[in-house]
Amino acid sequence: MLPSASTVLVAAFALAPSPAVPREEPCVRKVSELPRRPRVDGDLRDLVGTTPVLTRAASGHTDGLSLRAAVFVDTLYLGLEVTGDATEAPLALTVGLHSPEAGVAAPGHLFHLGPDGKRPSTAEEAPAYALAALEAAVVRTPRGWAVEVALPPLSLPRLPAHGALLLELCVTEGALDPAAQHPSSCPSGGPSTVRLDLPESLLSGLRARVPPEVIGLEARPGGWVGFGERIEPRWILADKPLTLPSLRALVSDSSLDPAALRLYIPDRMTLPDGGAVLGVLTGLDPFDAEDACSPDREVRFLLYRVKGRLAERVLDWPARSCALGRALSVSLDPSGELTVGYSSGATVRFIWSHDHFERTEYGSL
User: Fold this and answer.
1) pLDDT value of position 144
2) Are 312 and 323 contacting, i.e. CB atoms less than 8 angstroms apart?
3) Cα distance between residue 153 and residue 136, in whole Å
4) Could you give the CA distance from residue 65 to residue 59 in angstroms, rounded to a whole number?
5) Which has the closest alpha carbon to 224: 164, 302, 310?
6) What is the pTM of this model?
7) Are 350 and 316 within 8 A, CB to CB?
8) How far apart are CA 182 and CA 179, in angstroms?
C-alpha cells in the first residue's frame, strides 16, 4: 500500500494560477557548477556544497525532504533525501520539470521514481528518449531514502533559446501510478515559488548561432531543435549532415509518408542559389475511408532549407485539407517560383525571397 500523497511545492509545473489568486514573485536560485562529474550511485556526498532548493523538516506523519541541485557541463544533477517516520513505506516520488520562458507551447516532463529507481512515464508525460537518458539511483539509509538523479540534455524539457535558463521543478511524494497523475505535479498547479537559474554550460552541445526568432531549444536524438511561436520546429542543428530521413526524425516522431496519403511532393528541390529544400509532412489526415472530411484536421508540409547540419524552415502550408483537397503537384522552377496544385482545382504560388517563400497572390483560401 502506497502512502497517502504528500506533495512538496518547489515550483509550478505548466499550469497558471487562478486569476483570483495573486501570484507571488518566484525566488530565482542560481545553480552551482560541480568541479567533476559525480557518480549516480545514491551517495550524495559528491553533491555537498551544491545549491539548496528545498529543506523541509519531518512533522508527524509527513516526511522531511531536502533537495539540492548542481550542474556538471551539460547535465543537471538532483540530490534528494527523504526522512521521517513515514519512510518505512516504499519510496514514491514524481519529479516535474518545466521551463516557462521556452514558449507557450513548451511541454514539461514528468518522471517517476520508486525504490528500484526510475519507473515508466507515459508518452504524454515524457518522451521515451528522455526517460532512457535519465539516470537515477535510490539507496535506503538509516534515516530514510537517498535519491540521486542525472538529467542530461535529452532528459531536460524545452529550454529558453536566449536569456537566462530558468527551470521550474516540482517533487511529489506518494504517487507512482502514472495514470493517477495530473497535468501538474504541484498542488492545483499552484504559483511558482522557486526557479532554478541554470548555467549556460547546459547548452554546450550547441556550437552555432541561434536565430533571434527561435524562442525554445530542445535536445532530441540526433541534434537540437529550435521552436518559435508555432508548434512545428523552425530551426534544426543536427549532429551529422542532414538527410531526408534524419530531418524527418528530428522534426517529428510521427512524420507522415507522402505516398501513403497520395501527396505528390518532391523529396528534394533546388533553390535559385543552389540551396537544397527538403520537405516533411506533419499533422492529421482530415479524410476518412469514405472521404468524409473533418475541418479541424489537416496535413501540412514543412519545407526546410538544408545546408550540412543546419536546417531552417522556409514554408509551412497545407498539403491536405478540407478546403484545398490534396496536393497533386509541387514544383520549384529555376527562378524561385514554387507552385502547388490541389485536387480541388486551386493553384497556389510562392516566390523565394532571400530566406523564405512568400505567397504571390491571395484569394479566399
Assistant:
1) 87
2) no
3) 15
4) 11
5) 310
6) 0.84
7) no
8) 8
